[in-house]
Amino acid sequence: MSEQGKGLSLVWYLGILVTVFLWGMSFLWSDSVLDQGTPVFTFIFTRMIIAATALLLFSLLTGKFQRIRKGDLKWFAAMTAFEPFLYFLGETFGLKITGSPTLCSVIIATIPVFSLIVGWIVFREKLSTLNRAGIFVAVAGVILFILIGGNLHTDYLYGILILFLAVIGSTGYTAICKKLANKGYNAFSIVTWQFILAIGYFLIPFLIFDAATWTPAYLAWPVLEPIIMLAVLCSGVAFVIYAACVDRIGMTRTTVFLPLVAIVSAVAALILGQDNLHPLQMAGILIAMAGVVMAQYTSQKRKQA
What we know:
The chain is globular, with a radius of gyration of 19 Å. The relative contact order is 0.21. It has one domain. It is mainly alpha-helical. It has 13 helices and no strands.
């Protein structure tokens, strides 16, 4: 590889690290919004509006925006039902109930593992011995993290269960997203439409549960700042960088960095005092993330096949 090629590769690897950092911080920013007493549906609805606006402007300005073709609206609607709708319900309510951005990030980071389990059970997809060992290691790491935390009261366990709604949402989203990509829709259009449609999905629960008690205080800068960070940086900038990295250095090389999201979140939460972690919990995180990498590993022979 030429020196110029190496330099460009380094840029993309730095790009994915920026994405990992932003997604790791997202759990802390969400926790900050919830800690200020912002109702869940007010928080998510505001985030959807800002994210949809930012993504639509970006897609239009770059000429990447595609209209939904006749017959595909049902697929976009189904995709949006899984994510952002079901995903953000699980992530946000799970975070609100457990109060632990680190736990939330760890469970979300294991989504690829649970996707493999579903593919193995439902679609009979083949898994190597290393993949199966990785699933076991990842689940063991998560269990260690939860048990060492010592917060095994009913609400905490309920919060963990709610977090798995996000896992289900992400798994369903991935399957439909692949279908739409195969139909010729680019990644920018897919994500822009999912946030536009999500405004409609979250409008109804917002009107039912939060509209009557809404006040301008929910647009105060201390509340709005982390929501803008989430909408613009995590849903907008980070996604654009991630999509570009997948295109430039490949899906396999890009996704191997994603387990670092949980580690970034854990370290940041510890430094900022938003989570107190036992050393064995940190060990559990490292074990779980190692399992995620093992579970996703595909040998060169299988890639060629």
